Amino acid sequence: MSKICIVTGSSGLIGSESVAFLSEKFDKIIGIDSNMRAYFFGENASTEWNTQRLIKTIPNYEHHAVDIRNISDLEKIFGEFGADIQLIVHTAAQPSHDWAAKEPITDFTVNANGTLNLLEMTRHHCPEATFIFTSTNKVYGDTPNYLPLIELEDRWEIDESHEYYKYGIDEKMSIDHTKHSLFGASKVAGDVLVQEYGRYFGMKTGIFRGGCLTGPNHSGTQLHGFLSYLMKCAITGDKYTVFGYKGKQVRDNIHSWDLVNMFWHFHLSPRPGEVYNAGGSRHSNCSMKEAIGMCERITGNKMNYEYSQTNRIGDHMWWISDVRKFKEHYPGWDFKFGLEEILTQIHNNMCKRV
Fold it and tell me: In degrees rounded to 5, what are phi and psi of residue 214?
């Protein structure tokens, strides 16, 4: 019996990291990626370069340019490998809340219907497989903006008397009665579906609500990929626009390898329908202003950026993920990469591509 892993969005940041990480642990990795990123964000955001890199460097990788909305194409893949499929890592998505407002039907059918298609394929062809879903902290909508925030010189910070101050936001925060953006709403639909297939059907599903996911293989654009696009602008001199909140909005940033390592730990001992916040936590976070300063220091260039008073709808002023629940369930996992190392890796990799 062969051990097969399916990775959707296999040419994206988390997908390609999953392919590389898991290629040594499975007999074959089946990648599913139709390069929709080029459609979403333009040819500069194409992941074709990453597809070719995976094909050339991962001997047991097999690529399928399939749209996850096309259930008949998925049926062929899942039907061929059947019970040999032991793990599905579902990272394919429309990832921008700005873009979602332009084409809500495309956004929803990719993020919600596509996820449903994959869950059904798993249920019918390989029900014992682990199913990993990359959700997002945007499922919490703008609720974090109503936390007691304090304005510091370079960042917003939560009042130190609040329970979230030391460790960040946990999974108990409500995802209801909040402005999500249409992207957030479509990801909520996928998130809850994956939970339900775990709880209702007893499937080995895990939901990971990411903060800013980042790493050297990110094809960042203005609408998505905060650190990657920021570093790209620092290198090229292209103008970067900071949207609202005085540039002091805070994001936690998790390296793609650290996130995929979370997936692996979950797969080894799955907890059906479980939800985890997955971000850089207090270990790795920064404000926009702080990130600009770090990019300038690493590149030696003064950044060309402008400030827009208008923040993105539903955007977070402050987000830091509390990852203690995952650490409690999987004490063998911990962070490997910090913010400085992440940005240096992005810079060095991008200098080869720009």
Answer: -150, 175
Residue 119 in contact with residue 197, Cβ under 8 Å? yes
Sign of torsion over alpha carbons 229, 67, 262, 277: positive
Q: For residue range 276-315, what is the model confidence (pLDDT) as tens digits?
A: 999 999 999 999 999 999 999 999 999 999 999 988 877 8
Domain tally, the chain? 1
Computed over every residue of the chain, the mean pLDDT equals 94
Alpha-carbon gap, residue 72 to 104, rounded angstroms: 23
Helical segments of 31-169, H only: 36-41, 48-57, 71-81, 97-100, 104-108, 114-125
Neighbouring CB atoms inside 10 A of 162's CB total 11
Which residues is 214 bridged to in the sheet? Answer: 255
Res 163 pLDDT > 90: yes
For 344, how many CA atoms within 13 A lie in the half-sphere containing its CB?
5
**Domain residue limits at 289:** 4-353
Tell me the mean pLDDT in the region 4-23. Answer: 97
Q: Are 127 and 88 in contact (CB under 8 A)?
A: no
CATH number for position 195: 3.40.50.720
pTM, two decimal places: 0.95
What is the per-residue pLDDT across 231-270, written as a single tens digit (0 to 9) for each? 989 999 999 999 999 999 999 999 999 999 999 999 999 9
Of residues 285, 289, 292, the one with CA closest to residue 321: 285
